[in-house]
Amino acid sequence: MIQRLGVIGAGSMGAAIAGLAASAGISVVLLDVRDPDDPAGPARRGLERARAQRALLDPRAIDRIQVGNIEDNLDLLATCDWVLEAIIEDLEAKRSLFQQLASILPPTTILTTNTSTFPLEQLLPHETPAWRARFFATHFFNPPRALLLTELAALPEGADQHVFDGLRRFLEQRLGRRVLVVKSSPGFVANRFGIYALVHAIQLTDTLGLTLEEADALTGPLLGRPRSATFRTIDLTGLDILVLGTRSLQASTGDDYRLPSWVLDLYQQGRFGDKAGAGLFRTDGDQSLTFDPKVGGDRPTQPATIPGLVEASAVPFPQRLQQALHLPDPYGMFVRHLLGRTFWYVLARTPDVAHDLVTVDCALEWGFGWTAGPYQQMDMLGMSTVRSLITEAGQAPPPLLDAAEQAGGFYRDDCVLDLATGTMRSRQTLPVARRINQVQTRTVLTRQSILPLTEDVIAIRPERLTDLPQAIDHALTAQWPTALVLVPSFQPPGYPYESIIDAAEHGHWSTFTHLLKTVHDAVLALAEIPVPIVVMLDGDARGAATMCTLWADGTVAYLTSIVGFPGASHGLYPFGALSGLLWQANVGRTEPPAAQPPEHGGWLTAALTLCANETVFSSAAEAAQDGLLGHNAAVLLDRDGLLDNAVALARILGARIPTRPSSHPLKHAAATDLDMLLASLPQTPVAQTLAATMAPALRTATTVRDLLAAELEAWHAMLHDPNLRSQAATALQKVRPRR
Predict the structure, then answer these.
(1) Phi (first) and psi of residue 178, to 5 degrees
(2) Of 541, 529, 510, 515, whose CA–CA distance to 468 is shortest?
(3) Per DSSP, which regions of 75-166 are E strands?
(4) pLDDT tens, 539-577?
(5) Maximum Cα–Cα distance for the chain, whole Å?
(6) Cis preceding linkage at 574, omega within 30
(7) pLDDT digit string (tens) for 634-658?
(8) Which of 5, 191, 199, 380 would staple 187 via disulfide (CB 3.0–4.6 Å)?
(9) Integer Cα distance of 316 and 111 in angstroms
């Protein structure tokens, strides 16, 4: 079990991994070189940079990280369950460090390297044989906050399988990584193939005389790759990273990773990209400039004008790929040679770097943002087309292509071509199958909005709060579920404030009343669901999505979900929140949160004060601790696993006795401290209007319907006030997400 992690190297990668682990609740030791004036200064500064770059998904996690230096504090690693090396990509420096660790770490410690360059067998000194079964590569992608891929490799002679599998599960479930088990080889899988494709695009740009803008237009979404395409990607990640990485891959593999001389000239000039203020692209005042290899200098940026590109880009991806091949030359030639050379290299090298084809496709999709991996693309184009492309690119088709032709492709139904036998095997037998299933289920739910997850649990994903009644009714009548999972996908703040305010401003009171009633009916439908409901949050959940958690029987949230009620004290009243809090107190959610509540009023007053003061949390863990995520809140770093965990919780809740008590009479004990509760509200016009309107109802309400009716009356009164309405309109401009 991993409870304490040691990270050696506080650069951008090491500090980010330390922040990720600490955010997952792990105790971390972070070491770097020693500064004579401030021994732990380099590690501390690395951690501060990581915090500034939001590498700590939970800001409070910094308290779990102890900093030190390699010279004085290596002994701190003796108590770590896992030690990760993330120092400079220098073979001798790494080997020297591992030799020092040999006399410090106990034999039970897991030792890993974050290298993306060196095979494991080159790194571990021969005098440390005891570690060989527990020495692995854990290649995280940067930044880990956004890129979930981690490649995991063991030495060729094998690993302690129990430890290896345990580490893989830890990386997936605790740290939320998409783990691919790969072979120990230079660059592993993602960088080996992704950088090769990038380098070949640069080479073709040079040999065919294309502009950088034209190359980017051809290698972005047209080919199912990120919008940053080739050259803008280099500016984002750093030309220095590319040059050093290609040099290492060229030396270690002997394959063609050469960069044109003009690229190396820019490297020598320090034009590393965005971080250096200039790269392949730069700005001069208001003018955008692009480096032109033909003239050896910058010129004004010129949009690419490629015949047929607009038409090809307008069709769905598989058809885009086909149409791109037939663009007029030299553009069609560029695409054909790029794909042909990339397909050839992937086919030729896959047996050396991966255990299966699916790993290669996932590596390029998860690590480089490709819409579909190379093997999926080859299936889309057909084997005969792939053979022609490889031949046109000047290469001989590898034997793996022959095997695919005999098997009818690389994928068929739910099977994949097996590298060892050349026959089809079930994809569900692969180590990555579970993660792929999770990712695909989320994608299907996004597309369908309602999805049976098991025979007794249905997920619904409404895009508007007012869609809730119909979605709930559909789910309940479709399959008779024992529980629901609600994935609110409302655009924050989730309430139709703009339409409501506009109707009031123009005196359209019937429309105004109708809009308020639709929100009321949506919350009532949520409150009166006859089966348990689990809310899943992932992303910006401010406003109505947060309100939904207060009516749920359980909440499963991604750690960085943004939670709270912005603008609540300025007229953006979160309808249903107060009644939801009172309902929670009524059904037994009376224990105080971990955070110290205010001096008076206990948990309910504490949570209500957070709502009224429009507190917004950037950490779901902090929101849950302070009582804003309702019953049974689980906060996870495993983003892909959110839905699975929500289903597991929903099934438990669906089987319990009694079931959801939403229709039970309210206990008047919930309003015992009513005067104290209302007195705790801030002295603002919104809060005082709410208190004056709600007070009588709170003393007499016997059902949830009574509470919501009183809230509706209070909301109606607030927005009838022109001053409060004006405040609300101003607050709404600040709350809307930036586009």
Answers:
(1) -95, 100
(2) 529
(3) 82-85, 110-113, 135-140, 149-154
(4) 999 999 999 999 999 999 999 999 998 888 788 889 998
(5) 84
(6) no
(7) 999 999 999 999 999 999 999 887 6
(8) 191
(9) 45
Query: So what's the pLDDT on residue 691?
Result: 72
DSSP-derived pairing of the beta strands 4-8 and 82-85? parallel
Q: Which residues pair with 555 in a beta bridge?
A: 535, 633
DSSP string, 482-526: SEEEE---PPTT-S-HHHHHHHHHTT-HHHHHHHHHHHHHHHHHH
Q: Which two tokens stand for residue 125?
A: 């000194």
Structure token pair of residue 332: 């069609």
Place of tokens 């960069």: 259
Tell which residue, 189, 202, 176, 370, has the closest CA to residue 280.
202
- 300, β-bridge pairs: 289
Chain CA centroid to CA 278, Å: 29
List pLDDT tens digits, range 54-66. Answer: 999 998 899 999 9
Q: Rounded to whole angstroms, how far apart are CA atoms 631 and 609?
A: 18
Cα 308 to Cα 391: distance, rounded to the nearest angstrom? 25
Question: What's the confidence (pLDDT) of residue 554?
Answer: 93
Distances (CA, A) of 532 to 451, 455, 509, 555, 591: 17, 15, 36, 11, 21
Residues 101-138: pLDDT tens digits?
988 999 899 999 998 888 888 888 776 677 888 999 99
Q: What phi and psi values does residue 631 have, to the nearest 5 degrees?
A: -70, 150
* 156 close to 121: Cβ distance less than 8 angstroms: yes
Read off the tokens for 112: 């890993």
Mean pLDDT computed over every residue of the chain: 90
CB of 536 closer than 8 Å to CB of 556:
yes
pLDDT in tens, 392-421: 999 999 999 999 999 999 999 999 999 999
Average pLDDT over residues 94-100: 92
459 beta partners:
451, 485
Specify whether the CB–CB gap between 541 and 565 falls below 8 A: no
